[in-house]
Amino acid sequence: MPAALDDVVHGYRFDGIRANGTIGFYGAPEAVGPRIGDRPADERGRWTPAAFCLACKHIAPDPVCTCGWHMTAEMGDLAELPSGLGMSVRLSGREDIASRPVLVEVTARGPKMLSDHPADPPMTVRATWLRLEGRMWIHESVARPLVRAARRRYPYVQFERFSDPTELAVSNAW
Length: 174
What we know:
Order of helices and strands: EEHEEHEH
Mean pLDDT: 78
Low-confidence stretches: 84-93
Largest sheet: 5 strands, mixed
Radius of gyration: 15 Å
Distance between the termini: 15 Å
Shape: globular
Structural class: alpha+beta
Number of strands: 5
């Protein structure tokens, strides 16, 4: 990935599936917090709300912080995380979405920068907005009713199941 990031950066991240079939924060309303402008028009729940720093209340991403939506350009980087699963589900709130992992294909939009946090994979990008793209892999441990709910909520996404992030990365190397 070049030092100067493109307007749109393609990549992947781990999210979680909620009890109603919602994946991560895609389609959630904009939060009240500092941000630059508004997200693009949301067609069918593809966009995250604008990221902002919960701790310092500044616009995300910020060069002196680790805030922002995280994604990586290389799917294989996700398999190398210390926990195996869990990038960006560390602030999952009250619901245990981290126990229901989903790997999503996304594009990063708006202000963005490479992450220099030591726990992040080397090609991690932090961005203001993420847009859900065409493919999603749901862990095989996730119950079928949740998968059906997600399919209804995101009919434009191609769903697949996975058991091991490393095998998934190898089989989907482009």
